[in-house]
Design a protein that fits this description.
Strand order of the largest sheet of chain A: 2-1-3-4-5-6
Distance between the termini of chain A: 11 Å
Oligomer: homodimer
Number of helices of chain A: 6
Shape of chain A: globular
Number of domains of chain A: 1
Chain lengths: 186, 186
């Protein structure tokens, strides 16, 4: 491969993380100059799929879209597909407050990656990492709700992991690796 | 007038409330058999406008779309355009928990109504009602976050008001009355 693929995102952290995951496959992404049209939907797959289809149609070339979210069991999946808005408004502190008094702190980070060529149907790749919500926010790496997420069996939050460990463990790593294997096998 | 207008909503409470507000104007709405395509956006106006445009295009006749939300000052506007999802997941109880320890409980219910004819630009009407978040949920009328919203100067939550008082005071009443006056004057 080696060619560049357009990644529809406005988030440079996501671009860096995706490129770190994909570099062993010889795949490199560059930011698409195109709005990511996000719908309100219950699943990340619907959001990514719709955004990929509209971006591919507008740009006229193959694009990649990623959508991810934190799903907390005791909160009925909240903040889920709206994690980015929840992070901007109530933040980690708001989530910790919502978890007060819940024994069940289980949660998962999930990710959907959609690859779409103009006029074609999007192809979807999913990833998930199970874990739980920490009792306090810790760590300065990563972004979003990383400081309050503990991977399964880990005592470190995602914001305390080094980049390599996070990429190996994370929902985003899993989804992008599935995409890379599909692309190289395709 | 007296003719029926298609209202794109899956919420029968909203249909009833809108018809109660509009009946003095001789306007009556009926539910459109059409998906409401909601985008993720920071304002209700963008959400309503996009949904009205796509529904009018699909149905081929004029449609009305309403989007509303609860905006809490101390929470950076949360849950805002995502009030429906926040209600389904964390509910009134979650909002009360988030407000723990905040002195500033000011909030507003806001509403945007978009009217769109096929191929035309949507026309927007907004309404807002200022107030605050109650310390406990009270009342059984209305829907959504009504039980925790106190209108300005009122000791009753929106869920404790009778339908007539709520329609007069509410953000939804204001937006729909503006629409009616425009339609009858148009």
């Amino acid at each position: 491969m080696g060619g560049k693929i357009l990644f529809v995102t406005g988030n440079s952290h996501k671009l860096d993380e995706a490129n770190r995951i994909l570099s062993p496959y010889g795949i490199s992404l560059e930011m698409a100059v195109c709005e990511k049209l996000e719908i309100q939907a219950d699943t990340l797959e619907e959001v990514a799929s719709f955004a990929a289809r509209t971006a591919a149609w507008r740009i006229g070339s193959p694009v990649l879209v990623e959508d991810s979210g934190l799903f907390i069991d005791a909160l009925g999946g909240f903040p889920g597909p709206y994690s980015s808005y929840a992070f901007k408004t109530i933040g980690c502190r708001g989530i910790l407050r919502l978890m007060d008094g819940f024994d069940d702190r289980s949660a998962s980070f999930r990710c959907a990656v959609a690859y779409c060529a103009a006029g074609a149907e999007p192809v979807l790749f999913s990833g998930a990492s199970g874990g739980s919500i920490a009792t306090t926010a810790r760590g300065a790496r990563g972004f979003g709700f990383d400081p309050i997420f503990l991977g399964k069996g880990s005592r470190l939050t995602y914001a305390e992991l080094d980049e390599e460990s996070k990429c190996m463990a994370s929902h985003r790593g899993e989804a992008f690796r599935r995409f890379a294997e599909w692309l190289l096998g395709a």
